[in-house]
Write a structure and sequence with these properties.
Blueprint (H helix, E strand, L loop, with lengths): L18 H19 L1 H7 L16 H21 L19 H28 L8 H27 L8 H10 L11 H23 L1 H10 L9 H25 L11 E2 L3 H8 L26 H4 L4 H23 L9 E2 L14 H14 L8 H33 L1 H13 L3 H12 L6 H4 L6
Antiparallel strand pairs: 1-2
Helix pairs in contact: 1-3, 1-8, 3-8, 3-9, 4-5, 4-6, 5-7, 6-7, 7-9, 8-9, 9-12, 10-14, 12-13, 13-14, 14-15, 15-16
């Protein structure tokens, strides 16, 4: 007699992104950083120095940081196409056997281009109106996007026409928004769909908001890594650890920025849907400028958990072994955070569904980036250890950081709600993690012991959480 099969998945679902994609991008980034650091020697060896021989500096400017995205994106795109062959997946919405004629696709393609260009125009208007985009690091983003808009408009014409020849359903969100823009005089009002337009704008709002932010933070970290001399830091555990932390954050930012910008169907990296829940948007936007400037952080922010906290280097000063060990812990946590981005490859972005990840650190917990980031703050700031204000400010700091942790927990739950509703594979992964996740499974068992209740039934494990 056969034993009854388990109602839970016994094998971890296969990830939609292979490990090789992120590693290819990481290798490209490392090569570019090495080139930028060695540029003076390379220029001299190639006789490019001329009168400036020996005076050339490393390539650490903002455009070198921008070029790093190219060296990161191309290997990931090549791996995706040549090795993983993602362009053949049904999830792209492409059927390469269709081969419609150009004349056949033009009526829809024209309307789609109108929708796409109108979308970009409205995003440009938003950038112009929002003052924070015209100061500080955001100025670089505006310079890059202003330069990019003309080639994007030009290239969008052949791209849309070519892709529409093979799309199973070419009337996507851009088409419906274009139909809305041109109005009933060109095509009937009944041919555009409000839900499709909302879905279109959720995706582009995410790209527009987070894309500009990611571009703005590229140059500082890149310059710091390229200009650094590790030999100067080898004897200083604090500075050496923080240099490695900066390098890992650079990896996160570079690959993450590529993910926001490279949303193309032939790469199966398109945004299948943006988070439809207001709670998800609120939780996410609270953690980014300009909203974060009044909520989380030092000085006068509401959730200031760094009052009179000099941090780990201050409290462990004079204890070299402890400084090395604690610095190693911070590097490890940042490494997990960067690893969680690397495994996304070209699909990283907030508030989106672009497939399901089950490999890398996502084998151990559903939210490795949030977990490692929040633990990093506790370990680096040590908010309960203050130099002024006494025990009350120590309590305040700890409580405020707990509130910040709660915001990230809220973000995690809204993201799970989105993905559980979208993909059966994520529901299988969610259930598998509750049984087998190295971090997740013990926490689930602890929760059940504390709050009661036995193992979740299969339908409960796969259920879509109520808002």
């Amino acid at each position: 007699m056969n034993a009854p099969s388990s109602p839970f998945p016994t094998a971890r679902p296969r990830s939609d992104v292979s490990t090789g994609v992120g590693l290819a991008g990481l290798a490209g980034l490392v090569v570019w950083i090495a080139f930028c650091r060695s540029y003076p020697q390379i220029a001299d060896a190639l006789g490019l120095g001329g009168a400036l021989a020996g005076e050339r500096g490393v390539l650490s400017g903002p455009y070198a940081a921008l070029a790093a995205m190219l060296f990161t994106a191309l290997p990931m795109a090549a791996w995706s196409l040549l090795v993983d062959k993602v362009h053949l997946r049904p999830s792209t919405g492409i059927d390469w056997s269709l081969k419609r004629s150009v004349a056949e696709v033009m009526p829809v393609a024209v309307i789609k281009l109108v929708g796409l260009w109108a979308t970009w125009a409205l995003l440009a208007a938003f950038y112009c109106l929002a003052r924070w985009y015209w100061s500080g690091n955001y100025l670089f983003s505006m310079e890059v996007l202003s330069f990019a808009i003309f080639p994007l408009v030009m290239l969008s014409v052949p791209y849309v026409i070519w892709l529409d020849r093979y799309l199973v359903e070419p009337r996507d969100g851009a088409f419906h928004f274009g139909a809305f823009v041109v109005g009933g005089g060109v095509i009937g009002r009944e041919q555009w769909d409000t839900a499709a337009i909302a879905k279109h704008w959720r995706a582009w709002a995410i790209k527009g908001f987070f894309g500009a932010f990611m571009i703005s933070i590229l140059p500082p970290g890149f310059a710091q890594v390229v200009e650094a001399n590790p030999q100067q830091f080898l004897g200083n555990p604090v500075e050496f650890a923080m240099l490695l932390v900066t390098l890992l954050f650079l990896v996160d930012v570079q690959i993450g920025t590529v993910g926001y910008l490279l949303t193309l169907r032939p790469l199966d990296s398109h945004i299948r849907s943006g988070n439809p829940f207001l709670a998800g948007w609120l939780a996410a936007l609270m953690c980014y400028p300009p909203f974060v400037w009044g909520i989380i952080g030092p000085n006068d922010q509401i959730l200031n958990y760094e009052f009179a906290t000099p941090g780990w280097a201050h409290w462990f000063a004079g204890h070299t072994a402890l400084l090395w060990a604690w610095g190693g812990l911070l590097v490890f946590l940042t490494g997990v955070y960067a690893w969680a981005t690397v495994v996304f490859g070209i699909r990283f972005s907030n508030l989106t569904y672009r497939g399901v990840l089950t490999n890398g650190p996502y084998r151990f917990t559903r939210h490795p980036a949030y977990l490692s980031k929040n633990l990093f703050w506790w370990a680096s700031v040590l908010p309960f250890m203050v130099t002024d204000g006494g025990w009350l400010d120590a309590v305040r700091n700890a409580v405020f950081l707990l509130v910040v942790n709660g915001i990230y927990f809220w973000r995690a739950k809204t993201e799970e709600a989105h993905l559980l509703a979208e993909d059966p594979k994520y529901r299988e992964y969610h259930a598998w993690m509750e049984q087998h996740g190295f971090v997740t499974a013990p926490l689930v068992r602890l929760k059940r012991r504390v709050f009661g209740g036995g193992a979740a039934a299969p339908h409960e494990a796969h259920a879509y959480p109520a808002e």
